[in-house]
Amino acid sequence: MSNYHIKHLEEYFKVYRKSVREPEIFWEEIAEEHFLWRKRWDKVLSWDFKKPEISWFEGAQLNITENCIDRHLVTKGDKTAILFEPNDPNEKAQHITYNDLYKKVNQFANVLKQQGVNKGDRVCIYLPMIPELAISLLACARIGAIHSVVFAGFSSTALSTRINDSDCKMVITSDGSYRGSKTIDLKGIVDEALESCPDVKNVLVAKRIHSEIFMKEGRDQWLQPLLDQASTECEPTLMDAEDPLFILYTSGSTGKPKGMVHTTAGYMVYTAYTFKNMFQYKENDVYWCTADIGWITGHSYIVYGPLANGATTVIFEGVPSYPDFGRFWDIIQKHKINQFYTAPTAIRALAKEKIEFVEYYDLSSLKVIGSVGEPINEEAWHWYNDNIGKRNSPVIDTWWQTETGGIMISPIPYVTPTIPTYATLPFIGIQPAIMDDKGKELNGNQVEGRLCIKFPWPSIARTIWGDHKRYKETYFSTFENNYFTGDGALRDATGYYRITGRVDDVIIVSGHNLGTAPIEDAINEHPAVAESAIVGIPHDIKGNALYGYVILKEIGNTRDQNNLRKEINQIITEHIGPIAKLEKIQFTNGLPKTRSGKIMRRILRKIAGGDTSNLGDTSTLLNPEVVKEIMANVL
Ligand code: WT7
Question: Domains, the chain, ranges and CATH?
Answer without folding.
Answer: 9-319+398-489 (3.40.50.12780), 510-632 (3.30.300.30)
